[in-house]
Every structure is written in structure tokens, then in C-alpha cells.
Design goal:
The protein is an alpha/beta fold. About 40% of the residues lie in helices and about 20% in strands. The strands form five sheets. Strands 14-15-16-13-12-17-18 form a seven-stranded mixed β-sheet, with helices on both faces. Strands 9-8-7-10-11-19 form a six-stranded mixed β-sheet, with helices on both faces. The chain has a three-stranded antiparallel β-sheet with strand order 5-6-20, with no helix packed on it.
């Protein structure tokens, strides 16, 4: 089948709702700046209907056998893979990343749904030892309706996580996808409906983030909140969730350090880090950003990094051979301009890039900066863009102190040939995910989450399912 860029509709109580007379926001193609759709903004009545539907959906879904829930998720994964090329093109059109990356993301979304299809059948409990004539059981139960908020940078993978975990655990879910990339989430929702998901188990609403989140979290229907996004917004949602003691999973910002010891395989480190740094134009929460290179190999590594980064092809993600697409919206360009201007003013050296690319769309040059003082904003604020920050270090203790200096603790990367160094650094770094001679920290069966102000809880893996379950202890006598 062929999927053109679809009309943006909400899905409420089993029906796809057109914009009608609702207020709308334009959806823009970041590679051209052109309007490609209109996003309907949910009214309070829309949100109330979604909440009522979610309450009814939960009553149905929690009692549905796990094997039946699994069947729906498996069919949804199959639908995404069957329509891989068309789904990937929609994601690239609205988010901007190269088509090759969107194809990988379709597989990522399908893997996530398949994982929860299987893991949802393994919500095990246990029997406690008790005297004859009594029995005590510990069982897992669905937490209840979930309010989930997904960001725009992975428009397929994030909705799959936000929907797959609660659905696999027997919960209903109301998903608010991002304003910049709504159609991709619609396709994930469509896959679940094609898989046989019953009415009310999933509702999809769009709208202004603050009014929507306040309305949903102020309802006694919602039992769990899942959010991926910035630290300030995450803290705001935590305060709202505290009013009703709603459980939370927060995957917030990052500022990932990269530590390259002088015994590292530099070619491997360069190959992995250049590709990972500029993936999705640097708009990745686990993107490597603060590079700490040991003195003996600093000049060689930085020179080779600049050479490789300068060879990357920037352009419309739908064009063949493009390796770096546009930024998602004009706000990101403004943020990059401000951060780099601050770095220049403080004496930093821009070794590559550092400015917008003229023409239509929101393109920014792959950028490398060195000699930043510690007070530079780039070394303290998550840039969320195509910029690599180069610093040198001498000792193990020195680099650990610098890597752990910030309140962020999402991802970190290390390159060394020493088994002893690898063991010590893995223990020393304050991060929820650490890649040593590897960037493969995200997978359906691996917990994805951070520490400190990068959030709490994990998505994916058994931890993602467990976040949608509550523990009940039942003691019975005769």
C-alpha cells in the first residue's frame, strides 16, 4: 500500500476525529519550511471524552488474557514492517532525519511492540511460605490508565514505547504526540488498530502541551504518567502528578560525556562517534556531546574528527546519500546560534561549522568546538544539536570529575583497550546507560533511562513493563 502524508486526526473512543471547527496549528516540513498539514488542538470536551473512554478501555483490557494482548501487539509490529518504506517516508517528511535513519526507527518501533507482546505474558508473582491453612500471594496488576507524552525526535520509536508498555501490561493509555511530528504517531496507532486493539484502550490527542497535561493529570482516571522531554517540563509534570500521587516515568535531558583514553582504538572511536554525534542532526537525548580526549591522542583525534565531520552530506532527508537532515524547528536554530555565540565570546575555537546553512528549511552545519571554558553555556546546557565539544584530560580521576560534573546522568561513552580501565570507569560514571567501545545502548530488551536530573524509571525491557504494574499482596486463610 502507499501512504501519503495523512490528514492529522485525533483518535478518541474508537473514532478518528477530523479537525472540524477546532483550532489548528500548521505542521511544517523542516527541510523546506512548507506547510504539510494542520494539527487539530484538543478541546476540554475532547480530553474529557478521552478520559472517559480510557476508563472504560482499562476495565476491558485489564481482564483480557495476556496472550490476546500479545496477539494485538505482534500484529501491529507486522503491519509496521509490511509498510516500512511508506511509514519511514512520513517520519522523514515531518521530522527531517535521513530516510535511512527512519527505516531503522520503523524496525525499532516494531521490535518494541514485539518485545512487549512477549514480556506482557511474564508478569510473574510468587507464593510466600505460610503455615498450613493459609496462603499469601504476591501478584502483579495493571496500574490503570496511563497519560503518555512523546517528543518529536523519534516520532515512531517514542510512540511505540509509550503505547507498547501499557498495552502489554493490560493498561489503557492516552498518548499526546508532538506537535512537530504527529502523523508518525498516528501510523503507530493505526498499526495497533489494524492488529485488533479494542475501542477505548488507546486514545490519541493533540494540543497545546500545558493545557493538555494539566487537564489529563488533574483527572482521577489517570494512574501513571510517562514523559520524555526536557528537564524543566519534566519537573513541571512531576509537580502536577504529585497532586494525585500518580506514578511517573521520566526520561529527561542529557549531556553525554565521551571519554577517549590514550590506549583506545581511535579509528573505531571516530567511526562510532562521528556517526552517532550527527545522527538526527544531534537531536538525540543520548547524543555524544562533551568529548574528553586524553592528552597523548588529543590532536590526532580532533583533527580526524573534524575531517570526517566535514565530509558529511547535509540535505533533505528524502534525498539519496544524505547523512544529516535539518533541525526540527526554527527554535532549535535560534538555540544553536545563542549557544555558539556565547562560546565564541568566551574564547572558544570553532574548528568546523558553527552557523546556519542558507536556503529553505532549518539546516545547521555540523560543528566542532574546542577550548571552551567551564562556564560556557554549551558545557552546561544540553545543546540538542549538531555540535561536538572537544576538551583534553590527563588523569582518570580528572576526567571522571568532569564527566560527572553536571546534573545530567542519561548516557556516557568510553573508549579504551584496558579491561581494568573499563571496569573502573563503568563503576565511576554517574549515568543510566554507559557504552564502552560501543554505542549500542538502546534496545527493546535493555532498560532506557537516566539518573540525577535526567529522570527516573526506565522504558523498554522488563523495567518498562514493570513501570505499568503495581504489586498486590493477598493473604488468605480458611
Amino acid at each position: 500500500m502507499s501512504i501519503a502524508y495523512p490528514e492529522i486526526r485525533m483518535h478518541i473512543d474508537g473514532e478518528w476525529e477530523p479537525a472540524g471547527d477546532r483550532r489548528t496549528w500548521p505542521v511544517l516540513d523542516p527541510a523546506t519550511g512548507e506547510v504539510i498539514g494542520q494539527l487539530p488542538l484538543a478541546t476540554p470536551d475532547d480530553l474529557d471524552r478521552a478520559l472517559a473512554s480510557s476508563r472504560r478501555g482499562f476495565a476491558l483490557w485489564r481482564d483480557t488474557p495476556a496472550q490476546d494482548r500479545a496477539r494485538v501487539l505482534r500484529r501491529a509490529a507486522e503491519w509496521l514492517l509490511d509498510n516500512l518504506e511508506d511509514v519511514a517516508r512520513v517520519a522523514t517528511t515531518e521530522e527531517g532525519k535521513p530516510l535511512a535513519e527512519s527505516r531503522v526507527e520503523v524496525h525499532m518501533a516494531a521490535d518494541c511492540l514485539q518485545w512487549y507482546a512477549e514480556e506482557g505474558r511474564r508478569a510473574y508473582g510468587r507464593v510466600l511460605a505460610r503455615p498450613a491453612g493459609s496462603r499469601s500471594l504476591v501478584v502483579k496488576a495493571s496500574v490503570g490508565p496511563v497519560a503518555a507524552f512523546a517528543p518529536w525526535n523519534f516520532p515512531l520509536g517514542n510512540p511505540a514505547r509509550k503505547l507498547g508498555a501499557p498495552i502489554g501490561a493490560g493498561c489503557s493509555v492516552i498518548l499526546k504526540p508532538p506537535e512537530e511530528a504527529p502523523a508518525s504517531a498516528m501510523l503507530v496507532a493505526r498499526a495497533l488498530l489494524e492488529g485488533g486493539l479494542p475501542k477505548g484502550v488507546m486514545n490519541i490527542v493533540f494540543g497545546e502541551p500545558d493545557p493538555v497535561s494539566r487537564h489529563l493529570l488533574d483527572s482521577d482516571v489517570i494512574r501513571k504518567v510517562s514523559f520524555t522531554g526536557s528537564v524543566p517540563v519534566g519537573k513541571h509534570l512531576l509537580k502536577l502528578a504529585a497532586e494525585r500521587c500518580q506514578r511517573t516515568t521520566m526520561e529527561l535531558g542529557g549531556h553525554a560525556p565521551v571519554i577517549v583514553f590514550d590506549d583506545a582504538d581511535l579509528d573505531k572511536a571516530l567511526t562510532l562517534m562521528v556517526g552517532s554525534k550527527y545522527r538526527n542532526c544531534g537531536q538525540v537525548c543520548v547524543a555524544p556531546t562533551r568529548f574528553f580526549i586524553q592528552e597523548a591522542v588529543y590532536e590526532r583525534f580532533v583533527s580526524a574528527f573534524v575531517e570526517r565531520a566535514s565530509a558529511l552530506k547535509v540535505g533533505n532527508g528524502l534525498e539519496d546519500g544524505v547523512q544529516v537532515g535539518p533541525m526540527a524547528n526554527p527554535r532549535r536554530l535560534d538555540a544553536m546560534d545563542e549557544l555558539i555565540a556565547d562560546a565564541r565570546a568566551r574564547g572558544a575555537k570553532v574548528l568546523l561549522g558553527g552557523k546556519r546553512i542558507a536556503g529553505p528549511g532549518w539546516f545547521f552545519e555540523p560543528t566542532v568546538i574546542s577550548e571552551l571554558p567551564l562556564e560556557a553555556r554549551l558545557l552546561n546546557e544540553e545543546p540538542f544539536g549538531p555540535v561536538a565539544l572537544m576538551s583534553r584530560f590527563r588523569t582518570f580521576d580528572e576526567v571522571v570529575e568532569q564527566a560527572n560534573r553536571l546534573p545530567f546522568g542519561l548516557a556516557a561513552y568510553v573508549f579504551t583497550r584496558s579491561a581494568e580501565t573499563a571496569l573502573r570507569i563503568g563503576d565511576a560514571l554517574e549515568a543510566g546507560m554507559i557504552g564502552i567501545n560501543s554505542i549500542a545502548i538502546g534496545a527493546a530488551d535493555a532498560p532506557f533511562g537516566g539518573v540525577k536530573e535526567s529522570g527516573h524509571g526506565s522504558e523498554n525491557a522488563i523495567e518498562g513493563l514493570d513501570a505499568c504494574l503495581v504489586t498486590k499482596q493477598i493473604t488468605q486463610g480458611v
